[in-house]
Design a protein that fits this description.
The chain has helices at 14-27, 74-87, 138-147, 149-152, 175-186, 203-212, 230-236, 247-254, 271-283, 301-313, and strands at 6-10, 32-35, 69-73, 93-97, 110-114, 126-129, 159-163, 192-196, 217-220, 239-243, 260-263, 287-288. By secondary structure, the chain is α/β, with parallel strands linked by helices.
Amino acid sequence: MRTPTVWVLQDDRAGNVNQLLGVAEALGFPFEVKKITYTKWVKLPNILRVNPFLGIWEKELLKGPYPDIVISAGRRAFPVACALKKLSGEKTKIVQLMDPGFGGRNWADLLVIPRHDACKKITPQTLVITGCPHRVTANRLKQERAHWANVFKSYPEPRGTLIVGGATKNKPFTVKMAKTLLEQTLKLGVKSLIITTSRRTPPAVVEFLRSHIQLPHFMYCFGDKAENPYFGLLAWGDKIVVTGDSMSMCSECASTPAPTYIFAPSGMTSPKHKRFHASLYQAGYAFPLGEKGTSATAPNPADVIAKEIKKRFM
């Protein structure tokens, strides 16, 4: 059987990129990453973007030969995937992660919808998943554990990994919340902390954590020049705490062998996030921070999607 050609449409949203690369890597075939840069016109609804490249800089993506499979995520990149399918004589199959919005759903050959989106219309080309696809695998955790051993091995056990996100639209992340987060994390009985912040972590929260952690700890702040230890933190944590503002981070943490606790106080997350958290709790893959238990390792939805792609198109 001929190895299929695969393109990944990579935009400027880190969450989208991790999901796309997770699926492409799970497929196990060579793939090309095609970067997309947006202009202000991309804010228009897709149905008004008659030209699929309105709002897109990279017009060279129109050039063939076209791939067998194109993987896109979110609303903004989807018109490019549709254009490639049309130019290929509909030979290119579109794998679309997340709902592209009204007027485009029928163009996707495989439409991957998270269960927490509560999609009401399930078509034959729809695959419903729990959580978000990502790049965390058992093999990667093994490699990262070895890679970061010299840094984290000396910290007292049990080590607590703390993944700190930040504010989202109309949902602030306050210093008061950070204080509660730290207090509840320490109640897990950890003897040391290994921490990372994200691009959305407010400076005041970063400063609070810097000045109030008394245990032996390692702290990486987003933007530091040193190597990002994110996957090392997942590999070395004996107990993992993650803020609930990022579905991708929660999915990644839940896929590790360590028990995962989600910090999502009232006012921090949207109804969609709450549905997502509930799906992880119900499956036993995570717990609300403040409760104790041993969570199961969540399967990576990327593997489910990759299996479905091979079943349908190969």
